[in-house]
Amino acid sequence: MSIRGLKKKQPKTFKVRVITVDAEMEFSCEMKWKGKDLFDLVCRALGLRETWFFGLQYTIKGMCTWLKMDKKVLDQEIPKEDPISFHFLAKFYPEKVEEELLQEITQHLFFLQVKKQILDEEIYCSPEATVLLASYAVQAKYGDYDPNFHEPGFLAHDELLPKRVLRQYQLTAEMWEEKITAWYAEHRGIARDEAEMNYLKIAQDLEMYGVNYFPIAQNKNHTDLLLGVDAKGIHIYSINNRFSPNKSFEWSSIRNISCSEKELTIKPLDKKAEVFKFFSSQLKVNKLIFQLCIGNHDLFMRRRKVDSIEIQQMKAQAREEKARKKMENQRLAREKQLREEAERAKEELERRLFQLEDEARQANEALLRSQEAAELLAEKAQIAEEEAKLLAQNAAEAEQERQRLEITALKSKEEKRLMEQKMREAELIAVKLVKESDRRAKEAEHLKQDLHEAREAERKAKQKLLDITRLNYPHMAKYPQYSPGDSRDANFDKGSIKLDLKDIDLKRLSFEIERERLDYLEKSRKFEDRLKELKSEIHALKLEEKQAGLYS
């Protein structure tokens, strides 16, 4: 067979993009495939066995529709695009999530879808419940809370609360994070699947959980009611209240549901009860409501029958898996606890070791300080000893100096007394000298006066002698050789000698007076010098006495 022949026999395909809540997948489908073929392919790719809860949804002309399993994919009214996009979502909801959701992948897909519906406000939830649900979502994503790792701001990029709740309360993102973290810290030890299951167990009690709403009317002219279909039955709501139904029909009380064009008829099990008829705006809406009613009713009846072998096997596997996971979680918890205890013990040992090292370091430092202090004390003791010796020596020297000063003081006192006595004597001598000087000065004046009088008398005598000579010997000069005159000359010479002698006595007296005056001045000068020396010695003694007083 040629390669060209093989190529001709290969079936034609078309591309499909399947979008789950957290992933996207692309498949190549054969042209003849039905909806169930594509659905089974997606379930196998996901590893999903609880297929009865899910379906493939697409949007056409603004209306969400589910892909029919028994018809070819391309024969249905699907979007004309390449690849064709489908959303893999939960179509039917369980009554009790903990009993019916067996596989972990089923539980995870339900958790993601319900969480998205709550955040998109398709399911109403009170603010308190949203914070608790957010804490379980954080536990499922991040595991156990660790304050060292989960620092403030670690939830900044996570969408955890509906915008309605954020608008309702004027709280900052940090405040919301603090509230969520307070609950999150209490979920320590809960595994991811347990956290997701706790999330779904809280969510299944919400009034709008698992309900598909459709606008209907009790007559052909008005659309003033809402019809809701869920796992428990059919409910009739007013337009403005989706929480409390005005009328409910449980699946166990419904005998038959029929659909004809835009009319939907619900026949109760009680034949006497009134038959309810409702009208929808479009035939497609009626068909969609009818499909959801059939699917939910089938699941309702299945829950109340004995489980099939496949379900029993799945439940057994689920129990085994849960037991295994429980044991594994317990083992991991024990290991984690042991590891934490070991880490705490290690930290304690490290802390103790650090404390001991610190104590040893402090002890070494204290030892070094004590050694330094001992050396310093030894040096101080040596210095103190030397100072003591020096002080003793100084004390001895001071004692000697004191004795010397006492002796000096005594000597000084004696010398001072002697000096004072000398000064008094000097003063007396000075007084005497002054008196003597005055007396001598007076005597000198008298002598000078006497000398002056003597000289004046001598002058007068000489003058008188000359006058007498001229009168008695007028020719004496002319006759110098005359002998009789020699005797007179001799007499005259005798008079002259007498005058000369008298003159010599006066000169000698004057000379003696002058000499005594000079001697007196010399003595006065020496006495003044001696007085100055005495004053200097007295001043020095006074200074020494003062210093001796300071030393003492």
UniProtKB/TrEMBL annotation:
**Protein name, as recorded:** Merlin
Name the InterPro entries on file. Answer: Band_41_domain, ERM, ERM_C_dom, ERM_FERM_C, ERM_helical, Ez/rad/moesin-like, FERM/acyl-CoA-bd_prot_sf, FERM_2
> Which PANTHER family does the entry link to?
MERLIN/MOESIN/EZRIN/RADIXIN
Query: One MF term from GO for this chain?
Result: actin binding
Tell me which stretches of the chain form a coiled coil.
Answer: 311-464, 517-544
Compartments, as annotated in UniProt: Cell membrane; Cell projection; Cytoplasm; Nucleus
Q: Which UniProt keywords apply?
A: Cell membrane, Cell projection, Coiled coil, Cytoplasm, Membrane, Nucleus, Phosphoprotein, Ubl conjugation
**Lipid bilayer topology:** Peripheral membrane protein
Positions of the FERM domain: 14-304
- Tell me the PROSITE patterns matching this sequence: FERM_2, FERM_3
